[in-house]
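Morning!

This is the sequence you dropped in the shared folder:
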Amino acid sequence: MLKAIEVLEKLNYYSGATLVQTVDTLKAGSDDKETSKVAFCFTATADVIKAAKEWGADVLVTHEPTYHDHFDNFRESEVACSKRQLLESTGMTVYRWHDHPHAALPDVIHAGFLEASALNGTLDGRFFILDTPMTSREIASEIEKNCGIKHARIIGAADTESKKIGMCLGACGDMVFNIIRDTDCEVVIAGEICEWREGCFTRDAAQLGFNKSIILLGHCASERDGMKYLADIWNTMCPDIPGRYFETGELFTYTEDNQ
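The structure's back. Tokens below.
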């Protein structure tokens, strides 16, 4: 059996990254918690917390913040206090694992997404080079089918073939704009963007005859397969301490959803 802190240490060691400043720290519970099961998730929602506890998890590893702030600074509100009370009632230890997987070579989150997407090609840092050119519409369709994404949206040139894809999963700030504007990359797969900036730039580019497009997946949809992938990695590293991925679920409700 491991102590909770040893779970985080093993994950950090696997990443190969040594980070002085990081948000990958304790968010709830105790570092000394004896651990027999580890749960993994994209976001520790209330439903995920309940499901992980019911499974018997001692440690919950989440990619994104627990308290709706990048550094998990706790700001008192009825919602935040209710969530903290729920976590305390479970006795689980919660760690965030965000910076280390993105600092790994290759990026653990990107590797998990690409494995799930079944796109054929080679990951080269921030770029993925397709073995065979595809249109953005074809790429998006494959991602929807293989990653279970309900609505992949395309901005710009949807039906012109490309080989070089910029990987900007999650929320990458200026990086999406810098890649689509300043490099020869024709397609960017993104989680979140600023619509009036890189979105409108890409639309203008396509209308002016440039082969530029963004495939927009949503933050959770673009990164959750990386945490599924991490659970599989954990089970290979520590087969005696079972790990299990818990689905955060769709953030949005769609008009075609069953009522």
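Headline: The mean pLDDT is 96.

More detail when I'm at my desk.
O.
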